[in-house]
Amino acid sequence: MFAPDLFGEGRHAMPLRPGAMLLGGFAAPDAPALLEDLRRVEARAPFRNMVTPGGWPMSVAMTNCGSVGWVTDRTGYRYDPLDPQTGEPWPAMPETFRRLAGRAAEVAGYRGFEPDSCLMNRYEPGSRLSLHQDRNELDFDAPIVSVSLGLPATFLWGGATRADRPMRIRLFHGDVVVWGGPARLTFHGVDTLSGGESPAGERRYNLTFRVAR
DNA sequence: TAGTACCG
DNA sequence: GCTG
């Protein structure tokens, strides 16, 4: 363990590689407010299973908040200022989201993180996300901040190439992973989710903060 | 290849 | 049958 009790009881920071850090339990105190704001966002921009360029629907349901949102369809991946399902702008990023992301980035060594996009992923038992890179952003100077809420999941933490065998890291309610700098384009994914109970019911939410533009 | 199916 |  890198810094036991850096944030208080039962929480810890663990470096995953240069530029990347797991902040165990960092978001746990904020989780009730984050989940409440998540409900407000999804009321205006419902979760939906997007289709990949290959034509297959994703098992993970997604929505966004912020000035742009990550979307995929048969034409490819992109950031869009409008929700293609409603034609409306994505809901504004809640202050609770923005502040948590900024604090987590700072603790991990990235000052002044001001995300313009939050991709919200909803996993149900059986959902998974295969190995990929976050590389649709216009520049890679800013880090990625990833917040886990609800059911635990096995995070697949790979390397700079798809051929690197991923580490398997268990992520729990309130955990935050931050990666940037030399780790910014790390391949990552999520193994098939198992069932169970959690503060968010029988599902897992992931909030991924990016500077897309 | 942010996807599934299939083989060994 | 289960995993990779």
UniProtKB/TrEMBL annotation:
Domain of life of the source: Bacteria
Keyword annotations of the record: Dioxygenase, Iron, Metal-binding, Oxidoreductase
Listed GO biological process terms: oxidative RNA demethylation
Ranges of residues in domain Fe2OG dioxygenase: 114-213
Gene3D superfamilies (UniProt xref): Alpha-ketoglutarate-dependent dioxygenase AlkB-like (2.60.120.590)
Gene: alkB
Residues that coordinate or bind Fe cation: H132, D134, H188
CC cofactor note: Binds 1 Fe(2+) ion per subunit.
Keyword Oxidoreductase annotated: yes
InterPro entries xrefs: Alkb, AlkB-like, AlkB-like_sf, Oxoglu/Fe-dep_dioxygenase_dom
An example molecular function term from Gene Ontology annotations: broad specificity oxidative DNA demethylase activity
Cofactor: Fe(2+)
One Gene Ontology cellular component annotation held by this UniProt entry: cytoplasm
Protein name per the record: DNA oxidative demethylase AlkB
EC number of the protein: 1.14.11.33
